[in-house]
Design a protein that fits this description.
Shape: elongated
Oligomer: single chain
Largest sheet: 7 strands, parallel
CATH class of the largest domain: Alpha Beta
Helix content: 25-40%
Structural class: alpha/beta
Low-confidence stretches: 139-152
Distance between the termini: 47 Å
CATH superfamily of the largest domain: Methylesterase CheB, C-terminal domain
């Protein structure tokens, strides 16, 4: 059962959002609040798996309240806002700065045409965010977008990628969303290579993952669909229940063949599908996760001359998959999640 606490200045909004969330049998609303001043004590008492926080929550605003929450009692935090505010890049950046995982559009009961569809998307996003591990935020930022000198990021020089790259593949499991949060938002809208991701995730959460990544990214994020040609500046997430492969024409092919390493989609299946056709033109990455899905197949890509990366142990929530890849000699580079994002930004095509 996922425990959620809702904070909104409007009692009617609280009731609407509570009804939406509790329409899912796996969600329990463990508390509500209409004032930021009392919210901290309610979080400490209820110990929710996620907090939904209105952007305009009095007495200050939701962002200031978010900053206090992440300093005193860190919890997966989602900001709710109007469509106009949720699309505002400055607000989104500040929310992320203060520790919010994402901004979601507040349910609008007047939009009857897409009411049910939007509610399901809203629910799946909350469920996904509840699984993400968060840490206490120190008030180390004095001006938006400016970090102090000890910001915790690696100062290692990340090399430019001198060989041609036509396709980027990423495999991840437990801890993958946290790693993707450090990687995908670094990429510019003009990113020159398509990205395909297999993320092991609970069934029904994929829409939430796509919505969240789209909200924090400059590139377009979408679910991979049969026969879609993958394009530069786009990131494709493998759908629930199907293996994903990319054919020689850069088109998506979905398969319901048996699971591999207990998973469908499988990282191994995706990696194996491209190593013959694309050879050295592939850049493949294994991120945090339990088990060994994709570890050996990463080595096949390396043998063909492709660029291969494993996430390092310090930035991995679970070091199983990347650790196995490193043990097999499959990884040409071992980098933190933040460094992987910088590495990808050095691609030259």
């Amino acid at each position: 059962m996922i425990k959620v606490l809702i904070a909104d200045f409007s009692i009617s909004n609280l009731n609407i959002i509570k009804d939406i969330l509790e329409s899912d049998k796996n969600i329990q609303v463990v508390g509500t609040s209409s004032n930021g001043s009392e919210l901290i004590s309610r979080i400490k008492k209820a110990k929710p798996d996620a907090v939904l926080l209105d952007l305009n929550l009095p007495p200050t605003d939701g962002l200031e309240t978010a900053k206090i929450i992440m300093q005193e009692c860190p919890v997966p935090l989602i900001i709710m806002a109007s469509k106009t505010d949720s699309d505002d890049e400055a607000i989104t950046a500040k929310a992320k700065l203060f520790g919010a995982l994402c901004i979601v559009e507040k349910p609008n009961q007047g939009d009857h045409a897409d009411w049910q569809k939007n509610n399901l998307k809203f629910i799946s996003t909350i469920k996904l965010m509840s699984e993400i591990r968060v840490v206490r935020r120190n008030p180390r930022f004095s001006v938006l977008g400016k970090k102090d000198e000890k910001n915790g990021l690696s100062d290692r020089v990340i090399p430019a990628i001198k060989q041609k790259v036509r396709l980027i593949l990423i495999g991840a499991s437990t801890g993958g969303p946290q790693a993707l949060d450090k990687i995908i938002p670094q990429l510019p809208a003009t990113f020159p290579v398509p990205i395909v991701i297999v993320q092991h995730i609970t069934s029904g959460f994929t829409d939430g993952l796509v919505s969240w990544l789209k909200n924090i990214s400059n590139i377009n994020v979408k679910i991979a669909t049969e026969n879609t040609k993958v394009e530069k500046g786009c990131c494709y997430i493998s759908p629930d229940g199907f293996h994903t492969e990319i054919d020689r024409n850069l088109r998506v092919r979905l398969s319901s063949s048996p699971p591999e390493h207990g998973s469908r989609p499988s990282v191994s299946y995706l990696f194996r599908s491209v190593q013959k056709e694309f050879g050295a033109d592939v850049l493949a990455i294994i991120l945090s996760g339990m088990g060994k899905d994709g570890a050996a197949e990463l080595g096949l890509i390396r043998e063909k001359g492709g660029i291969t990366i494993a996430q390092d142990s310090n930035s991995s929530l679970i070091f199983g998959m990347p650790g196995e890849a490193i043990k097999l000699g499959s990884a040409g580079y071992i980098l933190s999640a933040e460094e992987i994002g910088r590495f990808l930004c050095n691609i030259v095509v």
